């Protein structure tokens, strides 16, 4: 059980506190309900670029990092398709420093031209380093627009194209800030050796006077059901072919999410999973074979990803994966497989919650989904998955018409 | 949108490094040291088995990492698939790793599965079968990863760095070539394993809630074998041939960025200046607010990240600076790195900047000892390099008291970038 207390400020900021006696540190996790799905299709990569700007100083904080370091803390952030998430971990007697810093950049960020110019350049280099200068680095730049035709999940958080970042202007940046960085769009979660009442009092002091702003309801085009197989083939300077197969599935809160999360663990979560055993060891088609959920809040994807062994025909490899997936739609997984997945879930969950920072994030994320209590109730949602549900869910999901395929092949020189 | 009233910022409480005490050690009946790290809050135990079986001990290239990776590919009692099924069914995580100096197996298990998983760990460590089929599959996979690595500027840059630092005939510096995969055999790894994976060549750390519960279990599965009879194989002294100064260029065609690595010889961990040098390094390139990050990322925007490291292997210390930059920025980047070093050798750092670094270190150390799992990883450095149980007590003292004058002196003594070798891996 992860116990916590909740409170909402008058301006709409939601606050969650979890007392963890096992650490001398405290983590503040501030989640903003803004991700790359909230971007204009002509100005993608914005939420992430904005995340960089959040470290560039604010009205009362010339250099964001300095007070964090002086307080003995560390901090970072990430952006994905759904959210932008900031966290600071510091000795618990310096908690108020973190709250001061987060409140100051929520309301008074420095958005000068020069800061923007530098961070555009840094993010451009990040784009190059992580996506362009890596073998296989552009796979997800290719997959998203193949699988999504309407929903903004069609571009990754880094953006569709480097040019979108290069032409970002400060008017748009300001607009993004006003629209998304308000107390009512945020969830602040605090975990560590701190008493909830003390935290609520400090949060009121630092965030209480930030004006509330009107929430503009999110209206996103919903992705229509896919009803034909999609396939692209690309040639790149890589040593081995890679096969990607992506199937549309439900939302993060759907029953299918839990069923398929457990199923993908059975298939490839560990070395004795079906895919490593059958596709890698026995049939020797792949050198690795992985399947996982993309995990977004709106309907997401189940993604198979496998690097082919030299000499394997990619069509044959794809047929072998499809064969395994078809079996799931008719034959129940074994009791031993289910039992293994449940044991693994139990230990991985405990392992993850050794870190107060992980608990802080998880609480905030569940609150965004609807209820922070989800951190505790999701155990049952996993443990109650039955073999019958796995058959139904597989039959619904793993159909050829619901599949987007990438054949990523070595250049023929 | 402005805040209604500006408030006095909160006062920063100078962070403390917390409890850095070295843990209790007990011995199994055959002498294997077991370090116990308690105060866990959940019913998980992390047990690590560390062997002096890293790359430096190998006579056949890649024997150390291959022997380590093959541990879970089958034992005398179980084939690979059955073995992994047994491990995974317990919910445990078994991670093997081998680096230049040591090889290890980490097991993380639910306390209630302790007995089962420890038995499996013993089987994996002392009775692996190294089957030919699995070996061939592993090598195929490695070849594929090797070929992928040929296109990564960061990988090539790192390899060239170690080659320049240690020399190509030294296991620390030797760069793998495609041919090498033909020469490694199961008999070579079998030999490596029987020489180095022995109770008299290992130690164990146990971290979690009530770590003492593991002692009788470890006694059952790890107290046999080789008591007192074994003599550590005599290893030839390694010769390090550090490259002469100057530019080394490694072409990675079509890359849109270049890896830049600069480095030179440093000092060993027991050198009286080693800890002070850690502080000096932090200022130059050891954290987000370092001189290099502020200049080259935050002012110039040449890179997503740049950092510097002061480290030491057994027998050789080194200083390194590393980054990935757009091809057209690499000369400017090297110039700016040299400029920052010159500045730190010429002008003393301010007390303000030094305070940031001091406090940041205290927070870092507190996090390194935050909970038994982190502590277990932290103390490995002390054990592996025999730096003394009071290493962190001394380190905290150094960080707190080192003066700006001393830091300047350290830059003058150890950061002579004219002695550097500069590696660029990227497009022509």
Helices and strands in order, then pairings?
The complex is a heterodimer of chains A (413) and B (428).
Chain A: E1 5-8, E2 14-19, E3 25-32, H1 46-53, H2 65-70, E4 74-79, E5 84-91, H3 95-107, H4 113-132, H5 139-147, H6 162-166, H7 170-180, E6 186-192, H8 196-207, E7 230-236, E8 242-248, H9 255-268, H10 274-282, E9 286-293, E10 301-308, H11 314-328, H12 335-352, H13 356-369, H14 374-383, H15 387-397, E11 403-410
Parallel strand pairs in A: 2-6, 7-11
Antiparallel strand pairs in A: 1-2, 3-5, 3-6, 4-5, 8-10, 8-11, 9-10
Helix pairs in contact in A: 3-8, 9-12, 9-15
Chain B: E1 24-27, E2 33-37, E3 44-51, H1 63-70, H2 80-89, E4 93-98, E5 103-110, H3 114-126, H4 132-149, H5 153-166, H6 180-183, H7 186-196, E6 202-208, H8 214-222, E7 246-251, E8 257-265, H9 274-286, H10 291-299, E9 303-313, E10 316-326, H11 330-346, H12 351-368, H13 371-385, H14 391-401, H15 404-414, E11 421-426
Parallel strand pairs in B: 2-6, 7-11
Antiparallel strand pairs in B: 1-2, 3-5, 3-6, 4-5, 8-10, 8-11, 9-10
Helix pairs in contact in B: 1-7, 3-8, 9-15, 10-11, 11-15, 12-14
Features of the shown structure:
heterodimer, A: 413 residues, alpha+beta, 6-stranded mixed sheet, 15 helices, 42% helix, B: 428 residues, 5-stranded mixed sheet, 11 strands, 19% strand, globular
Quick description:
The complex is a heterodimer of chains A (413) and B (428). Chain A is of the alpha+beta class. Chain A is 42% helix and 19% strand.
Helix vs. strand class of chain A: alpha+beta
Alpha carbon gyration radius of chain A: 23 Å
Secondary-structure element series of chain A = EEEHHEEHHHHHEHEEHHEEHHHHHE
Cα-to-Cα separation, first versus last residue of chain B: 50 Å
Largest sheet of chain A: 6 strands, mixed
The Cα radius of gyration of chain B reads 24 Å
| Uncertain residue ranges of chain B | none
């Amino acid at each position: 059980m992860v116990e916590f207390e909740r409170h909402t400020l008058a301006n709409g900021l939601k606050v969650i506190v979890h007392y963890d006696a096992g650490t001398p540190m405290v983590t503040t996790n501030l989640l903003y309900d803004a991700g790359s799905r909230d971007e204009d299709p002509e100005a993608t990569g914005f939420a992430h670029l904005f995340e960089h700007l959040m470290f560039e100083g604010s009205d009362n904080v010339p250099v964001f990092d300095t007070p964090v370091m002086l307080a003995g803390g560390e901090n970072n952030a990430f952006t994905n398709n759904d959210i932008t998430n900031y966290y600071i971990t510091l000795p618990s007697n310096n908690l108020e420093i973190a709250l001061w810093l987060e409140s100051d950049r929520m309301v008074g960020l420095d958005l000068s031209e020069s800061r923007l110019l530098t961070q555009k350049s840094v993010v451009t280099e990040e784009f190059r380093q992580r996506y362009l200068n890596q073998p296989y680095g552009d796979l997800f730049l290719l997959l998203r627009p193949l699988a999504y035709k309407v929903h903004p999940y069609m571009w990754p958080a880094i953006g569709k194209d480097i040019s979108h970042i290069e032409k970002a202007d400060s008017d748009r940046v300001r607009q993004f800030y006003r629209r998304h960085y308000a107390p009512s769009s945020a969830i602040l979660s605090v975990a560590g050796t701190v008493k909830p009442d003390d935290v609520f009092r400090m949060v009121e002091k630092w965030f209480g006077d930030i004006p509330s702003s009107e929430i503009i309801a999110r209206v996103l085009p919903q992705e229509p059901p896919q009803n034909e197989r999609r396939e692209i083939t690309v040639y790149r300077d890589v040593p081995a072919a890679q096969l990607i197969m992506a199937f549309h599935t439900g939302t993060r809160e759907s029953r299918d999410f839990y069923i398929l999360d457990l199923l993908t663990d059975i298939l490839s979560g560990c070395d004795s999973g079906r895919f490593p055993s059958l596709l890698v060891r026995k049939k020797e088609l792949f050198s690795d074979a992985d399947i996982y959920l993309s995990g977004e809040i709106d309907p997401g994807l189940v993604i198979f990803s496998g690097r082919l062994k030299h000499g394997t025909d990619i069509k044959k490899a794809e047929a072998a994966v499809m064969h395994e997936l078809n079996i799931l739609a008719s034959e129940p997984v074994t009791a031993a497989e289910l039992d293994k997945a449940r044991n693994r879930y139990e230990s991985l969950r405990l392992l993850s919650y050794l870190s107060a920072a992980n608990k802080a994030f998880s609480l905030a994320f569940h609150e965004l989904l609807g209820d922070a209590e989800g951190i505790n109730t999701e155990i049952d949602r996993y443990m109650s998955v039955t073999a019958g549900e796995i058959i139904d869910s597989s039959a619904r999901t793993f159909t050829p018409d619901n599949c987007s395929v990438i054949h990523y092949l070595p250049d023929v020189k | 949108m402005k805040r209604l009233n500006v408030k006095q910022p909160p006062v920063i409480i100078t962070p403390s490094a917390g409890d850095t005490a070295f843990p209790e050690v007990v011995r199994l009946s055959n002498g294997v040291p077991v370090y116990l790290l308690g105060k866990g809050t959940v019913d998980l135990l992390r047990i690590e088995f560390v062997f002096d079986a890293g790359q430096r001990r190998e006579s056949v290239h890649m024997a150390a990492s291959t022997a380590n990776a093959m541990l879970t590919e089958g034992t005398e009692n179980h084939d690979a698939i059955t073995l992994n099924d047994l491990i995974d069914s317990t919910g445990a995580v078994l991670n093997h790793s081998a680096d230049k100096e040591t090889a290890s197996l980490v097991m993380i298990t639910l306390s209630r599965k302790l007995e089962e998983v420890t038995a499996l760990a013993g089987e994996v460590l002392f009775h692996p079968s190294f089957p030919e089929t699995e070996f061939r599959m592993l090598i195929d996979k490695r070849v594929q990863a090797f070929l992928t690595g040929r296109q990564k500027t960061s990988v090539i840059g790192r390899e060239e760095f170690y080659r320049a630092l240690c020399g190509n005939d030294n296991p620390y510096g030797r760069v793998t070539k495609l041919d090498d995969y033909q020469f490694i055999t199961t008999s070579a790894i079998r030999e490596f394993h029987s020489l180095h994976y022995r109770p008299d060549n290992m130690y164990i750390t146990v971290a979690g809630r009530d770590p003492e519960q593991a002692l009788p279990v470890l006694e059952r599965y790890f107290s046999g074998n080789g008591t007192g009879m074994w003599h550590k194989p005599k290893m030839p002294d390694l010769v390090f041939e550090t490259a002469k100064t100057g530019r080394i260029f490694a072409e990675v065609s079509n890359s849109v960025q270049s890896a830049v690595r600069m480095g030179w010889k440093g000092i060993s961990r027991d050198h009286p200046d080693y800890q002070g040098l850690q502080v000096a390094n932090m200022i130059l390139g050891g954290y987000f607010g370092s001189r290099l990050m502020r200049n080259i990322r935050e002012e110039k925007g040449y890179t997503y990240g740049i950092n510097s490291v002061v480290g030491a292997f057994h027998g050789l210390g080194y200083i390194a600076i590393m980054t990935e930059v757009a091809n057209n920025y690499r000369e400017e980047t090297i110039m700016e790195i040299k400029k920052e070093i010159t500045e730190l050798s010429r002008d003393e750092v301010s007390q303000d900047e030094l305070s940031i670094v001091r406090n940041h270190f205290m927070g870092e150390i507190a996090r390194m000892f935050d909970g038994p799992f982190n502590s277990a990883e932290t103390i490995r450095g002390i054990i592996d390099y025999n730096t003394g149980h009071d290493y962190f007590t001394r380190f905290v003292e150094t960080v707190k008291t080192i003066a700006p004058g001393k830091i300047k002196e350290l830059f003058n003594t150890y950061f002579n970038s004219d002695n550097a070798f500069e590696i660029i891996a990227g497009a022509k």
